Amino acid sequence: MTEHEQLLARVADKARTVRPWGRPSLPEPVDATAPARAEAALGFGLPPLLAELYLRIADGGFGPEYGLLPLLDSPSSGEPAAVAQYLARRESGREDPDRPWPEGVLPISGWGCGMYACVDCRSPRATVVLFEPNPGDPALAWYVDAPSLEDWLRSWVEGTGWYEEGNEDVDLVPWTDARVRVKPSRAS
Length: 188
Fold this sequence. Notes:
- It comes from Streptomyces viridosporus (strain ATCC 14672 / DSM 40746 / JCM 4963 / KCTC 9882 / NRRL B-12104 / FH 1290) (Streptomyces ghanaensis).
- 31% of the residues lie in helices and 13% in strands.
- By secondary structure, it is of the alpha+beta class.
- The chain has one domain: SMI1/KNR4-like (3-Layer(aba) Sandwich).
- A 5-stranded antiparallel sheet has the order 1-2-3-4-5.
- The protein is globular and about 45 Å long.
């Protein structure tokens, strides 16, 4: 079994036993066409590992804090799906240029209080960044959560993320790419 397959197996095992907010069960995985439909709506590709999570484990509902958002639909989560979140945030950035949303940065997991873990779908390693808008200054709202989606998942499985008890003093590094990735979104 490859390292990649081992990580997916570990994530699946934890997802089956530890779900955010005591949800009674995991949603079913997405159908085989969902990643392509998501990519068509977004205008960019999903990192392969992210697509595999949705195809092989579940349509959200697992992971740190509130768990992964559904990919395209959000019947039970009460929150818009990842694709809808991205499109709405890009539109909002067009309406309020002081609060732009970077191109290719897909919200994948809510932290509450407006905070989201997001995958930079344009980075080679699928960097996971934290959007933390509460300080108020949009220039100070972005931090590197993990150098890759793989690292982010591993920290969740191993209980070593910055959000875990005992790790609260970890200082996250600002994500400086946000400023250069806020070109206007394509017309709706």
